[in-house]
Amino acid sequence: MYKWLRFIILATLMTYMGFLGLNWTQKNMRNAIPAADSRISPIILVPGSSATQERFDAMVNELNGKTKTTSSLLKVTVHTDNHLSYSGTFKPGRSHPYIVIAFANNHDGYSNIKKQAAWFNHAIKILSAKYQFNHFSAIGHSNGGLVLTRYLEKYFNPQKLRITTLMTIASPFNFSETNIDKRTQMLSDMIKANTKIPSNLIMYSVAGTENYNNDGTVPFASVEAGKYIYQNTAKKYTQITVTGEDSTHHDLPQNGEIVSLIQQYILHVNNLPDQPNINIRH
Amino acid sequence: MVTVKNHLLKFTQKLYHWNLYRAILATLWLVFPLEFVGVTFHIIYETCFHENGILETAWNLKTNLPGFQDLAYLLKSTNDLTFITVSLLLAFFSAEKLYELHVRQSHEHLAGITSLFIYFLLIVETASSLDLPQIATVASNLLIPILIGLLTGFIYSFIERRQPTKITTSYWATTHLIAIFSFLIVFIGALSFIIYQTQLYPNYLFQQVQNLFQSGKQPTFWRIILATTLGNLGHFLGIINEFTTNMGNHFSSEGANLAYLAVHHSLWKVPYPINLHTLYDSYGALGGNGMLLALGSTILLRVKNQQTRLVARLTFGQLLFDQGEALMFGVPILFNPLFFIPLLLAPFLSMTIGYLAISMHLVPPAAYVIPYATPGILRAFLGTNGNFGALAVSLLCVCVSGLVYYPFVNLLDQFTAQNGDELNV
In B141-241, which residue ranges form alpha helices assigned H by DSSP? Predict the structure, then answer.
């Protein structure tokens, strides 16, 4: 009797461990992060409201003109039925390929931004599988930055994809509200969900100012509200203000200053010629 | 086969009448209870308090149990101390027992104390640093304390025979012991200094052997067999060190498999289906080195000798968690020529079965990360993401190894029948 009891206890323990161990193994592998970055790291560009997939043509031209290598530009529009239409080319070369993800329904408003974030998630899943990349940088202009923020908070899976750098250009985190104390529904939702922001993200929020208050469309205070979402959650949060020529809301993407910032912070291209290090003695 | 058996029996019998061997057997039996307790607590530590231990992950003890870190630390240091004590006792008792067998009289434990002192000095002084885990690592090599003990016991019994006055008398002790211990401190110090300074050389030798296995990078069946057989041979002689336990562990193949799995999630096409983990850990080391789970089961099924049965019954639970040390002390398997052949043959056959099953695509290779201290028979099952074929192959390996052990376990009964109670020195 005692012998059988012992046997049964051991068998039960083994089955129990087998069951739980399997559970752990499967969970562990599902969350396994690919050890190496994919060779391709595209830069995803998201236009704002009322803008189409052509929104960044001027900016990309400017960037390509400034760097030695020419990067390909692929333009994708997500339609309301989730199907994608493509134009342009995707060339996995030495430089970062650009992918514009625009939305057929490009209206303004919080409810639409929610929809656009879902469409964006759908598109990036398909594109990352199709063009085989597992990390990317993103630039969002105006509402595009809001879509990206919503995407990072609600859909982004850090086990599948990695985002290195995010730059939002004149993104109104508090819509047209000029008083920072009056938080819109969207801003409070985004602040509430900001724990989901990847902790290794490097984030730049660029604001343009035509006068002391706004860039002609978006209030500076609304752009600045982004700090409540990103500051202390992302690895780095930097707020940059650009003034001068081409600093109205619609000209900002091709603003020379911002193009330089993109080059410096996202492409990591140094314009300065390599200087010999005089301190090295042989 | 029959002649082999007879030769083995005769050889064991001859060995058994040798005082050195009897001293080892008696020592192992004396130390068995402490080793058993140490291993039990070691299993508790590994399953419950080691990060990603199988029960730790199951119950998420790290977050759920208050004071987890403190308990883990306490248990870890207790484990280290227990195993150091086991080694110290080995040094003590092997000197004592040999002296008693030679001289057959009490001597106030001078041989044991001297041996203990020598061994303790040696492990502490040759450890790479003065902390407990490092000393425990040095102490895990069981051959050294036994050799030191035997040598000390032999020298004392030699002195005893030459000495007209008995060395137990206080006169001899006071005049000689001061000189003996002073000499030992200087001598062991110098020896340790040399060992410590020249550690490079044994390490270099080990490196060369390891490189031999890994040349060409791709782990092959024969290379894995060679590495694991060499490791098992070391364990048979009590040489348990980093070299014998991690012999083939430096192939980069497992990392490559995992990187592939992280992207593709398909076990059938991993880049290295044959490696140390998929063969040895999954099929060749169930119950610890030498398929001891099969030996334990065979003893329980077949052996009549009460002492051996008791050991197997006690340690069976430990064998499920791949801790065979207590069984190796209790039967004993260490230095026991009866088990030399099956100890090397059983893992070899099991790995061959595993190899055939994997290369014939009957089961996928076990490449998934599994919880720490997963019981042996579940390792292939979990590593293949719950493939029941792999579980069946594991069980088949235990059965085949049991068959390998069977004739030799029979010899154990014959041997005890011939020697009667004498075995319990």
Answer: 143-162, 170-197, 200-214, 221-236
Residue B150 CA neighbour count, 13 Å, CB half? 17
Tokens of A94: 């030495």
- Taking contacts as CB-CB distances below 8 angstroms, the residues of chain A near B383 are 25
* Antiparallel, parallel or unpaired: β A202-209 and A162-169: parallel
Measured between alpha carbons, how far is residue B309 from residues A58, B22, B301, B415 in Å?
85, 21, 9, 15
**Closest B-chain CA to A31:** B262
Number of Cβ atoms within 10 Å of the Cβ of B151: 15
Residue B108, by phi and psi: left (phi above 0), alpha (psi -120 to 50) or beta? Answer: left
Nearest neighbour of A33 by CB, restricted to B58, B262, B370? B262
Cβ density class A22-58: b for 16+ within 10 Å, e for less? bebbeeebeebebeeebebbbbbbbbbbebebebbbe
Instruction: Provide the terminal-to-terminal Cα distance of chain A, rounded to the nearest Å.
Output: 83
* Assembly ipTM: 0.78
Residue B245 has pLDDT above 70, yes or no: no
Token pair listed for B267: 């076990």
Q: Which of A17, A29, A34 sits opposite B54 (nearest CB)?
A: A17
Looking only at the bridges linking them, the beta strands covering A236-243 and A202-209 are parallel
Mapped onto helix, strand or coil, the DSSP state of residue B277 is: helix
> Are B371 and A24 an interchain contact pair (Cβ–Cβ within 8 Å)?
yes
Domains of chain A from N-terminus onward: 40-267 (3.40.50.1820)
CB B89 within 8 A of CB B30: yes
Q: If DSSP codes are grouped into helix, strand and coil, which group holds residue B283?
A: helix
Q: How confident is the model at residue B104 (pLDDT cuts 50, 70, 90)?
A: confident
pLDDT reading at B331 higher than 80: yes
Cis peptide before B332 (omega within 30 of 0): yes
CB-based contact A17 B375, cutoff 8 Å: yes
Cβ-contact A45, A71 below 8 angstroms: no
Choose the mutation target among B270, B370, B382, B385 for the interface with A, i.e. most A CBs under 10 Å.
Answer: B382
CA distance A202 to A163: 9
How far apart CA B62 and CA B74 sit, in angstroms, is: 15
Rounded Cα distance between B281 and B283, Å, is 6
What is the C-alpha to C-alpha distance for residues A131 and A211, in angstroms, rounded to an integer? 43
How many residue pairs bridge chain A and chain B with CB atoms within 8 Å of each other?
67
Q: Each residue of A190-228: pLDDT tens digit?
A: 999 888 888 889 999 998 888 877 888 888 889 989 999
Report phi then psi at B295, rounded to 5. Answer: -65, -45
Cβ-nearest to B385 among A26, A34, A36: A26
| Other beta carbons less than 10 A from residue B176's beta carbon | 14
What confidence tier does B140 reach under pLDDT thresholds 50, 70, 90?
confident
What residues of chain A, 17 to 76, have a C-beta less than 8 Å from chain B?
17-18, 20-22, 24-26, 28-29, 32-36
Measure in Å the smallest separation between the Cα of A162 and chain B Cα atoms. Answer: 14
Whether A25 sits inside 8 A of B370 (CB atoms) is yes
* pLDDT per position as a tens digit, A61-95: 888 877 767 788 888 999 988 888 888 888 876 66
